[in-house]
């Protein structure tokens, strides 16, 4: 069975042939490949082609694919059954681990995806504040909950449908949006609506409009605004958690949110999310408190085993420093290649997370990110794919380096980039 045949079958059976939009390659054109297996820094498709993978299942695979420590933990857990529907010991260890690693989290609730985590966090924020409005940022993505599909990033940005049909106007009206990295705009919004705002939710390093780090002092400024107006500050650390630093972006930037949402790495590749925060807030969640939220498979023993094994690995001394150094090697190398080819290009990176822009100068805003040359990116993407390097199939996604990417992998990537850039600009 080859990639094309599988995609033809898939398209008859699933919307767009996929179970999550960006996978379909709609933004970059062409057809996706179907992965048969993955190991370390590599994916192999059903035709046996190997790719150096900078997507890492969109974030979870921070130690590379199929790491033996994670795999063996899952194998052990599976022998004891797949799901109990009662509490299990691994949930307690997981909660202890998160509380120990993430500065602002005193209590936590496990869920099954990043989307569930963010939806639950804003319900809690609304429940405890008694207010209805939430604030999000243009180009930030927090999953597909109704409240978040307003000027959203990721697939919603790629496809140019910032507000999806099916989101009731009444729900969208409660979501106020702001430009990322513009503190004055936030001050003006809070001056007008502050008393109605339950929470402000932000990706502390934006990763769904390509990768845009927060400006110096920006997160601190938002913290002060939220405190002043009695709104909760929610850091969506689904991407940044355990990646940009062991304690996430809040540890990296030294800013304390009220609530935090997690996903990806915390599940080690299994479908897991979580939200947590200050004790008196989390004690409002059912059954301790009145804010209802539940999940049949939440805290699943196999998923907890995978996540815990992954979190053990990222606690190795020097893990994040090494990841950041490797990411820097990649970004500096790509910059040198682009400079050599005379192509306007820049990169952003925080820890093991990076963004590539076909644009001159540092990109710090959504407006700049969306003004970059996406046609050139799309040609570059396909040039890289042809040479066995898999970048995120959209100009508006962050890339991820794992600890399994070797210097040799980076060197091979840069060699491919030299050829792909030459080819891409030639057209
Ligand atoms: N928040 C952020 C910052 C994300 O990047 C994502 C997914 N990429 C989500 C939330 C939603 O997570 P999930 O896809 O697991 O629902």
Automatic annotation (TrEMBL):
It is an enzyme of class 5 (isomerase). The keyword Electron transport does not apply. Its EC number is 5.4.3.8. GO terms for biological process: protoporphyrinogen IX biosynthetic process. It catalyses: (S)-4-amino-5-oxopentanoate = 5-aminolevulinate. Pathway: Porphyrin-containing compound metabolism; protoporphyrin-IX biosynthesis; 5-aminolevulinate from L-glutamyl-tRNA(Glu): step 2/2. Belongs to the class-III pyridoxal-phosphate-dependent aminotransferase family. HemL subfamily. This is Glutamate-1-semialdehyde 2,1-aminomutase. The gene is hemL.
């Amino acid at each position: 069975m080859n990639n094309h045949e599988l995609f033809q079958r898939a398209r008859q059976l699933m919307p767009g042939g996929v179970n999550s939009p960006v996978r379909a390659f709609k933004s970059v054109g062409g057809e996706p490949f179907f992965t048969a297996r993955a190991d370390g820094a590599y994916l192999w498709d059903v035709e046996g082609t190997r790719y150096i993978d900078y997507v890492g299942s969109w974030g979870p695979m921070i130690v590379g694919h199929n790491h033996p420590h994670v795999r063996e933990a899952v194998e052990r857990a599976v022998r004891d059954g797949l799901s109990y529907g009662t509490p299990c010991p691994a949930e307690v260890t997981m909660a202890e681990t998160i509380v120990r690693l993430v500065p602002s989290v005193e209590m936590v609730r496990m869920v099954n995806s990043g989307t569930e985590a963010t939806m639950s966090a804003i319900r809690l924020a609304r429940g405890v504040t008694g207010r209805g409005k939430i604030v999000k940022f243009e180009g930030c993505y927090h999953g597909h909950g109704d409240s978040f599909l307003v000027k959203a990033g990721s697939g919603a940005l790629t496809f140019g449908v910032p507000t999806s049909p099916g989101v009731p106007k009444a729900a969208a009206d409660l979501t106020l949006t702001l430009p990322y990295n513009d503190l004055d705009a936030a001050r003006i919004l809070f001056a007008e609506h502050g008393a109605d705002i339950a929470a402000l939710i932000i990706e502390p390093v934006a990763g769904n409009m390509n990768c845009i780090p927060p400006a110096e002092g920006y997160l601190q400024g938002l913290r002060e605004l939220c405190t002043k107006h009695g709104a909760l500050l929610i850091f969506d650390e689904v991407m940044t958690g355990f990646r940009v630093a062991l304690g996430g972006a809040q540890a990296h930037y030294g800013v304390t949110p009220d609530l935090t949402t997690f996903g990806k790495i915390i599940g080690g590749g299994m479908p897991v999310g979580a939200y947590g925060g200050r004790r008196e807030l989390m004690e409002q969640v059912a059954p301790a408190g009145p804010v209802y939220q539940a999940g049949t498979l939440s805290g699943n023993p196999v998923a907890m085993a995978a996540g815990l094994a992954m979190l053990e690995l990222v606690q190795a001394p020097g893990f994040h420093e090494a990841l950041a150094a490797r990411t820097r090697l990649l970004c500096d190398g790509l910059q040198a290649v682009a400079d050599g080819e005379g192509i306007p290009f820049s990169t952003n990176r925080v820890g093991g997370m990076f963004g590539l822009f076909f644009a001159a100068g540092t990109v710090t805003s959504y407006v700049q990110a969306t003004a970059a040359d996406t046609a050139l990116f799309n040609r570059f993407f396909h040039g890289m794919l042809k040479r066995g390097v898999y970048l995120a199939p959209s100009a508006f996604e962050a890339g991820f380096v794992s600890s399994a990417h070797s210097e040799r992998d980076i060197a091979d990537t840069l060699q491919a980039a030299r050829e792909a850039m030459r080819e891409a600009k030639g057209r």
